[in-house]
Amino acid sequence: MLKTVDFSMGLLIIGLSYSLLVIYGISSPFIIEKVFVYSPVVTGYSSLGSGLALMLGGITSKVLINKNLFLKINTAVILQLIFAGLMTIISFGANGFYVLLIFTLLIHFLSGFIFNNVYAYCLQRFSKNAGVASGLTGGGIYVISSIAGYGLINLFEIKKCSEHCNGQFTDRGFDFSWDFYFQEISFNKD
Questions:
Q1: Residue among 82, 163, 69 at smallest CA distance from 119
Q2: Residue 175 above 60 pLDDT?
Q3: What DSSP letter does each residue of 110-164 carry, written as one string?
Q4: Three-state DSSP class for 167?
Q5: Measured between alpha carbons, how far is 39 from 5 in angstroms, rounded to an integer?
Q6: Which of 163, 144, 146, 151 is nearest to 187 (CA)?
Q7: Rounded to an integer, what distance in angstroms lies between the CA atom of residue 78 and that of residue 92?
């Protein structure tokens, strides 16, 4: 089973898709509460929005069940990469909490869409060995997401949080200086 390219790539895709949710769940309280200086209630609402976006992505995949699988997945992946790139570019100019939250919700919507389609494909790929395929798929999600999460967590190190890390409130709303934020994060050299 693991020697089959489409099954192995499917495991990788759903593992990375799930790790997106896990990494967001781990990092969002720090970003929302420490960087943007919002309350834990806002963190909870943004996580609720993330969960709803994932659920709506799954429902959308159910609605489009009769469409070509590979066309759906390719379109969703391309859109996800475009939104991630736009989020990165726009965050240097308009870097408020709500701007980043909108992009996060869009990316999580597409992640839910991709996850449901690829997970179903992996489960039905080997119908004669359904139990083994189910075990490999379910276990593969956690193994791959653990490796991706561990790798990303060890890639960045937050050294300290200066007075600029709390952001500033202006008459236009929240204004955060990325220059000061990126000075506090460095790549691990180990």
A1: 69
A2: no
A3: HHHHHHHHHHHHHHHHTGGGHHHHHHHHHHHHHHHHHHHHHHHHHHEEE----GG
A4: coil
A5: 45
A6: 151
A7: 22
pLDDT classification of 173: cutoffs 50, 70, 90:
very low
Written as six digits, the tokens of 152 are 């990303």
Q: What is the pTM of this model?
A: 0.79
The backbone torsions φ and ψ at residue 64, rounded to the nearest 5 degrees and listed phi first, read: -95, 30
- The set of residues, in sequence order, having a beta carbon less than 8 Å from that of 186 and lying 6+ positions away, is 156, 157, 159
**pLDDT given at position 27:** 84
For residue range 40-74, list pLDDT tens digits in order: 999 999 999 999 999 999 999 999 999 999 999 99
- The whole-number pLDDT of residue 180 equals 39
Please compute the mean of the pLDDT values over residues 158-184 and round it to a whole number. 42
Query: What is the residue whose two structure tokens read 């994932």?
Result: 54
Cβ(139)–Cβ(15) below 8 Å: no
Amino acid type, 162: S
Give me 157's structure tokens: 């190190």
| Site of tokens 């409130």 | 169
- Amino acid (1-letter code) at residue 5: V
Unique residue bearing structure tokens 């089973």 = 1
Q: How far is CA 110 from the centre of its chain?
A: 9
Q: Report the 10 Å Cβ neighbour count for 178.
A: 12
